[in-house]
């Protein structure tokens, strides 16, 4: 199945919204990065990872944008000349199992309601077998501790994401609780 076309912005540049590992490892060239807020979805550890941070036999747990609430992250502006390569890279990275819907969503830059752009965003597919829904802290800890995939250790993913959030000057309470628990008892 061919993914939907990405709607062009007036200047041809592409905005990409990062809320997890894209914040600390975008993997593509960009012209600028700006703190941004997406309304209507929140960051959640709601995706079983069968590839990057786990396997089907020992799944890890990664972030998705799930419906409701809001999410602070980073909007990356990609030059028009790099747009097709960036989209191809993101599809290869984010869509290995098609657990996300690739969508264009409005994001507000630097919490300024007048500075709105449309950004490429990956929102969890709630009908996908990898959708974990809302898990309690103990279940999250168990999946993160066991998870290891081709992109590395699941614990490192969580801690790196928390560090990126803190570097932007904000907190994500559920993710910070998990990180504290992982740091307090790092060994199975």
Describe the structure.
The protein has one domain (14-183): Roll (Hypothetical upf0131 protein ytfp). It contains 5 helices and 7 strands; from the N terminus they run βαββαββαββαα. The chain has helices at residues 21-24, 83-94, 137-146, 154-167, 173-184; strands spanning 14-18, 32-49, 60-78, 100-109, 116-124, 148-149, 152-153. Helix 3 packs across helix 5 (173-184) and helix 4 packs across helix 5 (173-184). It is globular. Residues 1-8 have low confidence and may be disordered.
Keywords:
about 190 residues; five-stranded mixed β-barrel; 7 strands; two-stranded antiparallel sheet; Hypothetical upf0131 protein ytfp; alpha+beta; disordered N terminus
Write the topology of this structure.
Elements: E1 14-18, H1 21-24, E2 32-49, E3 60-78, H2 83-94, E4 100-109, E5 116-124, H3 137-146, E6 148-149, E7 152-153, H4 154-167, H5 173-184
Parallel strand pairs: 1-5
Antiparallel strand pairs: 1-3, 2-3, 2-4, 4-5, 6-7
Helix pairs in contact: 3-5, 4-5
